[in-house]
Specification:
358 residues; 8-stranded parallel β-barrel; binds prephenic acid; aldehyde-lyase activity; transferase activity; chorismate mutase activity; CM_dom_sf; 3-deoxy-D-arabinoheptulosonate-7-phosphate synthase /chorismate mutase
Length: 358
């Protein structure tokens, strides 16, 4: 075959490639439409029965020279690409998606602008036990220039016989301390019915890991004008975590901070496994600020500093850790809370690494 003849064949192949390109993209548009219709109907995007039907049709009409198995492979790749497109459209449609809103959401907590490029620290006791206990922690946190104080009043505990928290009384203590020390408070709410009254006492509603898919609670938190710190569920995928945040924003409240707090894996050296890569993934996928709770992810005091360093290095907007005046007698989580000396060491080391917006 002469070179000229070869060129003619190649020109024809080029032409067919372009036709295939057009056809593949035309198909993709239809698949996107189908995806939207499925979304409205709430049907699963992946449909193996439909795929089998299409493959059978292709097999029946295959006149060669390709083997049926080769064609199956090629078409299966096309189906997969269509499915990815549908999934991507779904993600883009979410209100929390960075594709929907490219700029960072900044959550303003009494002047602390979480998500603005600075890295913030949240500290406080696991549970509010008394005014004196919370005030002591606030004093030491304040002496280090911190403003964000956490403390649990409603404590969802694994055992019903463990300390369940002081409830509203605990929130009142937090408010009194926050007013005295000019600090902002974060506290977990577990019952949607408690949100209305709780917001008079706290600056941030925390939704805990065990309640990440408590949809009534998420919706109730979405209906108030108060920042929400949403923790990742114990066994939640990032997709599920993002969708939980979507529940809140879909009700009108976009002041959401995501918090990676470790997930349950087979590893028992730590209480949970800190999924550090969740931080950049969540920041890429959503426009929301992301914090890391080093206390609950590790469950180990000796790992708080290295894990907090990792969180800062990977770009978390804040790091959360628990501090108690006397961890040995704490009513909850005594093995993992820091005493004041440990806290001072922790914060001194981390302040050197934390980004501060100019
Ligand atoms: C499509 C995509 C994914 C499904 O697994 C099956 C088929 C396709 O690419 O043809 C389209 C589609 O979503 C559908 O027909 O239901």
């Amino acid at each position: 075959m002469s070179n000229a003849e070869l060129d003619i064949l190649r020109d024809k192949v080029d032409e067919i490639n372009l036709k295939l390109l057009d056809l593949i993209n035309e198909r993709a548009h239809l698949v996107q439409e189908i995806g939207k219709a499925k979304e409205v109907q709430g049907v699963n995007q992946y449909d193996p029965v439909r795929e089998r039907h299409m493959l059978n049709l292709i097999n029946e009409n295959n006149n060669g020279p390709f083997e049926t198995s080769t064609l199956q492979h090629i078409f299966k790749e096309i189906f997969k690409a269509g499915l990815e497109l549908q999934k991507d459209d779904h993600r883009k449609a979410l209100l929390v998606s960075r594709k929907k809103k490219p700029e960072n959401t900044i959550v303003d907590i009494k002047g602390e602008k979480i998500g603005d490029g600075s890295q913030y620290f949240v500290v406080g006791p696991c549970a509010v036990e008394s005014y004196e206990q919370v005030a002591a922690v606030a004093a030491v946190a304040k002496s280090q220039g911190l403003k964000l104080l956490r403390g649990g009043a409603y404590k969802p505990r694994t055992s019903p016989y463990d300390f369940q928290g002081l409830g509203l009384e605990g929130l009142k203590i937090l408010k009194r301390v926050a007013d005295e020390y000019d600090m902002a408070t974060i506290s977990e709410i577990v019952n949607p019915a408690d949100i209305e009254k709780a917001i008079d006492y706290i600056d941030v509603i925390q939704i805990g890991a065990r309640n990440m898919q408590n949809f009534d609670l998420l919706k109730a938190a979405g209906q108030v004008n108060k920042p929400v710190l949403l923790k990742r569920g114990l066994a939640a995928t990032l997709d599920e975590f993002i969708n939980a945040a979507e529940y809140i924003i879909s009700q009108g409240n976009g002041q959401i901070i995501l918090c990676e707090r470790g997930i349950r894996t087979y590893e028992r050296a730590t209480r949970n496994t800190l999924d550090i890569s969740a931080v950049p993934i969540l920041k890429q996928e959503t426009h929301l600020p992301v914090m890391v709770d080093v206390t609950h992810s590790t469950g180990r005091r000796d790992l708080l500093i290295p894990c907090a360093k990792a969180a800062l290095a990977i770009g978390a907007d804040g790091v959360m850790a628990e501090v108690h005046p006397d961890p040995a007698v704490a009513l909850s989580d005594s093995a993992q809370q820091m005493d004041f000396d440990q806290f001072n060491e922790y914060i001194t080391q981390l302040k050197k690494l934390a980004a501060v917006k100019a």
